[in-house]
Specification:
Blueprint (H helix, E strand, L loop, with lengths): L1 H15 L10 H13 L30 E2 L8 H5 L11 H6 L13 H13 L4 H14 L1 H10 L1 H8 L3 H7 L1 H4 L6 E4 L6 H4 L9 E5 L15 H15 L6 E7 L5 H4 L14 H18 L4 E4 L4 H11 L5 E3 H20 L12 E4 L3 H16 L4 H5 L2 E5 L2 E2 L15 H5 L10 H8 L3 E4 L9 H10 L4 E4 L11 H8 L4 E4 L6 E3 L2 E3 L1 E3 L6 H11 L6 H10 L6 H6 L9 H18 L5 H8 L2 H10 L9 E2 L7
Parallel strand pairs: 1-16, 2-4, 3-4, 3-5, 5-6, 7-8, 7-10, 10-11, 11-12, 12-15
Antiparallel strand pairs: 8-9, 13-14
Helix pairs in contact: 1-2, 5-7, 6-7, 6-9, 7-12, 9-12, 12-23, 16-17, 16-24, 20-21, 21-22, 23-26, 24-26, 26-28
Length: about 625
């Protein structure tokens, strides 16, 4: 049978050549082709095989001697200063020799507790708190006292705590950030500091490998929160550490305070930002330019992640800098990558191959930066799997507040450039058609939402999707939960539990008519830690579309067969470090193929996945206490 399959696959390749169209193949022919391509050593379909069983951190990794100690900053004094520094603090976990060496004997209680014992105590306290915001505040207080213990706790309980330290709870935290702030973290560059950014960078004494920056103009679906958006930058970086293994000493949260147009903040006497209206036009873009140039000068290899910028600015900033510095926009590219990963996961649940994405028809509700980024990225995937560019554009129906966007729509506004080819392809339906009319007319297989309009996917809409599809793909992706287009319960009731569901914020699984609808969460958390890790480790100077596509393919490869059978399209968050490691490997491999890596990384990639796995895992920060020593240059 295997010999026969190999002969058929080789004959198919000879007949089809390199210009094959995946949608023209029968399922059997496609399966034979892909199975034997992998068997003969090809890499194109390698991600189809599950890596859930093999991607695990080795029991022992090669560590350098410098990783076994922490050399304290030369300005650090012996004694109480060590205890009050959250980077060095261990509470009751200082050993007897450390207490003597660091001058803290008698300054801490005599009992000794391990980091595991400390984490268990803090976890028990956190679980007793009444609201998610109280739990968030409790964790922030811990981070201000003891960073290692904070990251240990978050890493061990990432599935439970990710919604606390990031979406949806971080949205409420940002709304109240000026009131909740206890200790300044990261850097604040304001409109009043213009002309000084380059020198201000040196006030941050540590090396920075990843920087998350926001201007606070569009925080989640909550609008202009100004400097209060710092909570987003900090929360995102906490996930880089816990999920991607970045050292917390090498991360930098940043807010660009360009002012705010939010009257509540302007009239709030306790608002921590500049009490001025937002910069616009040339002044605004000059401020962005000064920041990017300052980072490039101070930390030339650092990754910059743009977060929660207004639609009218987000894509323009991304397009200007994406080929100049190592950067990406998570709202545009990260969201697009996780949606594509979810669609690939849905193909698995449907018993199809990844290439069957070309058979899907998509309705996208929301035409902002996220919506435009998603459809553009999905379009790339359709083309990569066999469709022509024009054929792929016709698979999309984009709807905004004014209805269906067609060739008749005037798209000359800021940020609308990516939508134009999709609009030109829509000359077959009336301009401004309503969502329900579009669904009834085109019978889409996938309904996606980034509109931030709560309840947009009504019962009529969901029932129509169920009428035209045995298993419709429904993705209400807007954050936070209060802005989601629908809930998992509404989808389960409207579709009889048959839908493949994925949301941006967490919802519960729903059982109905003996079926369980799995409430998958398409969280960007699956993407950005591994993407960032792979980009930084690869030494690439840019993040290419190919590297993003590689990340999207890698995520569903971490699904187990049992999960696919249950309707799960994303692996469990509690394995986020293994997921990030595999994403990083595939990103590095793609960067190497594209000629973007130095010679040492190119040689590493040539050694194969096992060598890369060891390298990636050994590069990951593990939150554990290590011996503290004073710097040789310390004068204190």
């Amino acid at each position: 049978i295997e010999l026969r399959a190999g002969m058929l696959a080789r004959r198919a390749r000879a007949l089809i050549g390199t210009s094959h169209r995946a949608q023209a193949w029968s399922p059997r022919a496609r399966g034979l082709f892909y199975a034997n391509t992998t068997a003969e050593g090809g890499e194109e379909e390698d991600e189809e095989r599950s890596r859930a069983g093999v991607m695990k951190a080795p029991m022992e990794t090669k560590r350098q001697s410098k990783d076994d100690v922490i050399v304290m900053h030369p300005d650090t004094s012996r004694g109480i200063e060590v205890l009050h520094n959250p980077v060095y603090a261990k509470g009751t976990s200082f050993t007897a020799s450390e207490r003597e060496r660091l001058g803290i004997r008698g300054l801490v209680p005599p009992a000794y507790f391990t980091v595991n014992q400390q984490a268990a105590k803090i976890w028990a306290q956190n679980k007793t708190l009444g609201t998610p915001l109280e739990r968030w505040s409790h964790l922030q207080d811990l981070k201000d006292r003891n960073e290692t213990l904070f990251y240990r706790l978050v890493t061990e309980h990432i599935e439970e705590l990710a919604p606390i330290i990031y979406t949806p709870t971080v949205g409420e935290a940002c709304l109240n950030y000026s009131k909740l702030l206890r200790r300044a973290r990261g850097m604040y560059f304001s409109a009043d500091d213009r002309g000084e950014f380059n020198t201000m960078m040196y006030n941050w004494k540590r090396d920075a490998k990843v920087i998350v920056v926001t201007d606070g103009s569009r925080i989640l679906g909550l609008g202009d929160l100004g400097t209060n958006g710092m909570g987003i930058s900090q929360g995102k970086l906490d996930l880089y550490v816990s999920g991607g293994g970045f050292d917390p000493q090498h991360i930098l949260p940043v807010v660009l305070d360009c002012g705010t147009n939010n009257p509540e903040l302007l009239n709030d006497p306790y608002y921590i930002g500049v009490h001025k209206n937002r910069l616009e036009g040339k002044e605004y873009y000059d401020m962005i330019e000064e920041f990017v140039r300052g980072v490039k000068n101070r930390w030339p290899k650092a990754l910059i992640q743009f977060e929660d910028f207004q639609t009218k600015h987000a894509n323009k900033i991304l397009q200007k800098y994406r080929n100049e510095v190592l950067c990406f926009n998570d709202d545009i590219q990260g969201t697009a990558a996780i949606v594509l990963a979810g669609i690939y996961g849905a193909m698995k649940v449907l018993g199809k191959h990844r290439a069957d994405i070309v058979q899907q028809k998509f309705v996208m509700c929301g035409a902002g930066s996220a919506g435009a980024g998603i459809v553009s990225f999905l379009h790339q995937a359709l083309v990569a799997n066999g469709l022509s560019a024009d054929e792929a554009y016709k698979r999309f129906y984009i709807i905004d507040v004014n209805g269906l966007i067609t060739a008749e729509r005037d798209l000359d506004g800021p940020g609308s450039e990516p939508l134009k080819p999709f609009a030109r392809a829509r000359d077959d339906m009336p301009e401004g058609a309503k969502l329900i009319d579009v669904i009834n007319a085109v019978k889409p297989t996938a309904l996606l939402g980034v509109s931030t309009v709560k309840g947009l996917f009504t019962a009529d809409v969901l029932e129509a999707m169920a009428a035209y599809n045995e298993r419709p793909i429904i993705m209400p992706l807007s954050n936070p939960t209060s802005r989601a287009e629908c809930t998992s319960d509404e989808v389960a009731r409207a579709t009889g539990g048959r839908a493949i569901f994925s949301s941006g914020s967490p919802f519960p699984d729903v059982e109905i008519d003996g079926k369980v609808l799995k409430a998958n969460q398409g969280n960007n958390f699956y993407v950005f830690p591994g993407l960032g890790l792979g980009a930084v480790l690869s030494g690439s100077s840019v993040i290419s579309d190919g590297m993003l596509q590689a990340a999207a393919k890698a995520i569903p490869a971490m699904l187990t067969p049992a999960q696919v059978e249950e309707g799960v399209i994303f692996p469990r968050i509690d394995r986020i470090r293994d997921i990030s490691a595999y994403v990083a490997i595939k990103v590095m491999q793609t960067a190497a193929k594209e000629g973007r890596v130095p010679d040492d990384i190119r040689r590493l990639v040539a050694q194969g996945e096992a060598a890369m796995k060891e390298y990636v895992y050994s590069s990951m920060y593990v939150p554990e206490y290590r011996p503290l020593v004073f710097s040789c240059s310390s004068k204190k």
